[in-house]
Design goal:
By secondary structure, the chain is α+β, with helices and mostly antiparallel strands. Helices cover 20% and strands 38% of the residues. Strands 2-1-6-5-4-3 form a six-stranded mixed β-sheet, sandwiched between helices. A four-stranded mixed β-sheet has the order 8-7-9-10. A four-stranded antiparallel β-sheet has the order 14-13-16-17, with no helix packed on it. The longest helix is centred in the first third of the chain and has 15 residues.
């Protein structure tokens, strides 16, 4: 896999942006961008060669910018995979979009680049919040016009424990949401419910942390904070401010992501940037969503609600190879959700040393 190290970094870059895209998508009937833009874009990718990529170049606006990558740099990246005599294929997929007006749109879409002879995936890039603009009669990719996220810093994960009628929990939830807005590229929280109706049967996460009295938040498997008073919420801020400065310990890349009924499966590539003890290292996959029918005790929407979790030991796994994962939701998957994957040092009992080594956030939209 000669492109693996490059692809991992590129995918890590492209999977995040300075504007976390949280819209619910709908296709305006008057403008079908699948027909007008994305299908022709796929045809253009099929026609390019190592010496001529002009067909694809015409789909990018001259002042295109996506996570700091301009048009010239994007085209150079696309063309770099064409130097192999065995040939490559480019696949445009998982398109969802929303029209702002007749001249502007925003889209999520995936570009997968594979070797024709071996079917090896060379790059798997999800473009989030891609802007499209109509110039004269032609739609063009405009990027997200965003700054480059700091991919050198880890993703910080807070595991938060609550229940829908918890009277003291809304301030903690508001603070976690504020932190996620403050650090959209480097922080996310997973909302575990410890009581029905949103309890995930069989999930032992709360038991492991001893999180029996909501609200409780555990940051990066190391810092456990209870209650939701001013002092506790101040701890939330200080802990996250510190943890988002830590360098990335592992680069994560997901490929072959598949949804079958209530199950999500994928292959995970890990690129370790530090030595890790594997004996109690686990890899977890978590499904979270905002699309639940319940609200909190103050009648506010719930966010990042955990609907499924799986964990596997990496002790006897060759982490130099792709690692297959699968996680099932406890109820039908919503149209929009996220798959969170992270490695964690997990001794048999929790003693504020169950370090989470970054992770990856992978948005999924099921078109109906």
């Amino acid at each position: 896999m000669k492109y693996l190290s490059i692809a991992l970094i590129l995918v890590s870059l492209l999977l995040v942006s300075c504007d976390r895209f949280e819209h619910k998508f709908s296709t305006a009937p008057a403008t079908d961008l699948n027909t007008l833009f994305f299908s022709p874009l796929q045809d253009a990718f099929a026609s390019i060669t190592a010496t001529d990529i002009s067909a694809v170049s015409g789909f990018y606006k001259e002042d295109y910018l996506h996570n700091g990558v301009n048009k010239s740099e994007r085209l150079t990246w696309i063309q770099s995979f064409l130097s192999d005599n065995s040939g490559v294929s480019y696949t445009v997929s998982e398109v969802s979009y929303s029209l702002t007006d007749e001249h502007n749109a925003q889209a999520n879409w995936r570009l997968t680049i594979s070797a024709l002879n071996t079917k090896e995936v060379l790059a798997d890039s999800l473009f989030m919040g891609e802007k499209l603009v109509k110039v004269d009669t032609q739609w063009l990719l405009y990027g997200n016009q965003a700054c480059v996220p700091d991919i050198a810093k880890q993703l910080v994960i807070a595991e938060y424990f609550t229940f829908s009628t918890c009277p003291n929990c809304p301030p903690a939830e508001a603070k976690l949401q504020q932190l996620q807005n403050q650090y959209p590229e480097n922080f996310i929280y997973l909302e575990h419910h410890i009581a029905p109706p949103l309890l995930v049967p069989g999930d032992q996460t709360a038991a492991y942390y001893g999180a029996y009295s909501a609200p409780v938040a555990v940051f990066q498997g190391m810092e456990k904070v209870g209650q939701s008073n001013a002092a506790s919420l101040s701890q939330y801020q200080a802990i996250v401010d510190n943890l988002v400065q830590v360098d990335v310990p592992i680069y994560y890349s997901l490929r072959d992501v598949n949804v079958n009924g209530n199950e999500v499966s994928a292959n995970v590539d890990l690129s370790l940037l530090m030595e890790l003890q594997k004996s109690d290292l686990v890899l977890s996959a978590v499904i979270i969503t905002d699309e639940v029918e319940y609200q909190n005790a103050q009648g506010q929407p719930l966010h990042n609600v955990v609907r499924g979790k799986s964990s596997m030991s990496l002790a006897d796994i060759d982490i130099g190879e792709a690692i297959p994962i699968a996680v099932s939701a406890v109820d039908p998957l919503p149209q929009n959700f996220k798959l969170i994957v992270f490695a964690q040092h997990k001794p048999s009992s929790f003693a504020n040393s169950s370090t989470i080594y970054g992770g990856i956030v992978y948005p999924i939209s099921l078109r109906k």
